[in-house]
Specification:
It comes from Tetzosporium hominis. The protein is mainly α. It is built from four helices and no strands. The chain has one domain (about 1-80).
């Protein structure tokens, strides 16, 4: 189990530039969409973090598009609105 954790950390470190690219490209769009919703800033940040976690997972298998980003964000928003 310890080895798996080290491998995950190495993979994240090795692919850090991809994570940075995803953030740079989509963070403003995601935040602007969240600002239209009646969430607290804390909740918006939490949704944003979870959205980027999902984008990070998705980016390993397929090319990210704006439509995919909005789809994942919509899923996260609906989840938090139903709470």
């Amino acid at each position: 189990m310890e080895m798996k954790s080290e491998e995950n950390e190495f993979t994240i470190y090795k692919n850090r530039h991809l994570l940075d690219e995803i953030y740079e490209k989509y963070s403003r769009t995601i935040w602007n969409i969240l600002c239209r919703r009646p969430f607290t800033d804390e909740m918006k940040e939490k949704i944003m973090v979870e959205t980027f976690q999902q984008l990070w997972i998705q980016s390993k298998g397929i090319k990210l598009t704006g439509l995919l980003v909005v789809s994942i964000l919509k899923e996260r928003i609906l989840f938090f609105e139903q709470r």
